[in-house]
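Q: What would this complex look like in 3D?
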Amino acid sequence: MVLSGRQDFENGVGRTGFEPVTSSVSGLLPDSAHVRQARSRWLWRCPRLTVVTPGRPPYRARGGHGLAAFSGQPDAACATRRAPCVIVSFRRDNILGVTNLMDVERVRAALEDLCEPLHDVFCWADLQAAERMPELGDRGTYGWYATHTVRALAHHRLAKIDLGAWSLSGNHARNGELWLTDGQYRARVLHALSDKQVPPPGLNGARCAYYRNPPLALFPVPLFGPANDRLLLLWRIDPESHMPAFRVVRPIGNWKWGDHALTDLDFILPPTAADLHNLQFLPSDEGLELDIPAAEDGDEDATG
Amino acid sequence: MLPGERVRTLRELLGLTQVRLAEVAGVSQSWLSDVETGTREVDVKGLSLIAEATGTPIKFFFVQSSTVPLDSLRFRKLASASKITTRRIHAFYGESYRVTEDLLSTGSYPPAPLPYATKEALNDDDIEDFASLTREALRMAPDKPIPHITRSLERAGIAVAPIVLTDFDTGELGSSGHHFGVSYWGGIGEIALIGYFPGEQGDRDRFTAAHELGHLVLHTFRPRSSDAEGEANRFAAALLVPKDRAETDISDRLSLMGFARLKANWGVSIQTLIMRGSTLGLIGEVRKRSLFVQLSQQGWRKKEPVLVGQERPLLLWTLLSRRFGERPYRAAADELAIHPVVLRSIAPTPERTTPNSPAPDSSVIEMKHHRRLAHYSR
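A: Here is my prediction, written as structure tokens for the whole assembly.
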């Protein structure tokens, strides 16, 4: 599949091409009023667009999980609303992965200063916790202890080291909050119970609000001021290797425990952000010339 | 020295069995066995056949072996190193030492002015002191990174020789059998030679050179030390990263990235730096473990980041080429009664490329199972 014609779509120019209007991201928020409004506004601005859902006629397309097609014959398509020329499959073409690549890089770059300190501190904290209380090493029974202790030790250590542009925020005394901010981005460091699940916000209103980032697919460029993303940093520690792993998630809504998490960024934080390829040690023997005695030459000293 | 013993030396030097050498030379294996054990008179014809088949000067069988007592050789190797390879290295090193003695004495090169330990037991402070004295003896700055340890050793009269073992039949590089280095110093006023097996990473070779230097300083007059390898390791770390600077640069809060930067500064592996910090009590046990966990997780235990360029020895080549010209190997082999493969190994022709360029295939031995700072044995 070739993605093209985005500019045409935005300008309303009738060229052959197609572009997704909705994405699987917006599809995750079918009930969100502002998403529906935005989608309707775009559809209104571009009457040549037809939204379809596989197995349904175009006029019954549903928001979110539908398909968007930009017709090469706008008038006919617009007139009938039944004749999309090209079908773009979100499920098949993984468009989400393409559209949020830049955002992943943006967030990853913003988190650069945290890559190494977080891995370093949590690895140390886990070993420290295990070292100090070996009798509570059974993760099945005392996993809660390890979680709380590791988080507390990590907070203690993070408060003392240089985190670059980032600093601790939140009230750690309030149930071990471990929050970070660089003045624009905010990140809550949460323990993840499994590799697959993202903790839901629950019923707390402030937490629910934190989880409601504007979907990047709808607002690819921040409308007002800095990006101001509200992120989750989900940590887990491998019990065998003691190595922590951090998953960066950008929530865009609320969900219940066990439901599909509503996120539009989800990637693993690399252990190190520095480019070590540039570091090297080059031996140099400058000024260390070998001082080899001159070869004996009998003729020079020979006397007649 | 009987020619029969020299035949055995040659066979070990080339890594051949009696059967294979007999096959190559066209003599019977029983004759070869009898000659080696001294139960049969050696005839020149048989020796000529062996010399011709192996490309060895006939003089090889009639020179005295080196003065190195082989039981006093110091090896830096893993416990899994094979005995067959160790025997081969014994022979290789012995011949290298003999040639080095000849080259250095003929070239009137001054012997090494090394300090030496005589106390029965050494503690960590003693080792730090000897490392400091050694820096002074080698005319190194007391608290700065060593820019080129090989050249510093050579300037001080300690010859450094790469040992490259090749397969006799194919000419391909053979395995060093988990060996890293070998060394011997005859004592005050005598020749010292450090042999090492060139690796992929320059930091390993630098540590090996420092480790072997530790043997020369600490164990030449203390051959019965109970923990010679441990002492040599501590000496190497102390020599490469002096205590004062380590206390300044290494702390419990230094991250892995910080150690990587230190590696780029000191030319010493991250693992050595961590161990150095631990030995000096600058980082705790838990911190050390957490750093090694991270190293393992990133696959850096076997292949660390941060390139450390390889050092090239120059002394033996310079002496050799001064005496035998720019293409010295064949002429020198006849004159010095040595197999040319030994000369090519210990006195390689200097490259005209930059010092940080990757090692050429001819001087690199791949060792897949090296684990620094672990399981050394004598």
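A: To summarize the key features: The beta strands of chain B are 74-78, 158-162, 179-185, 192-196, 307-308, 376-377. The first strand of chain B starts at residue 74 and ends at 78.
Q: Very helpful, thank you.
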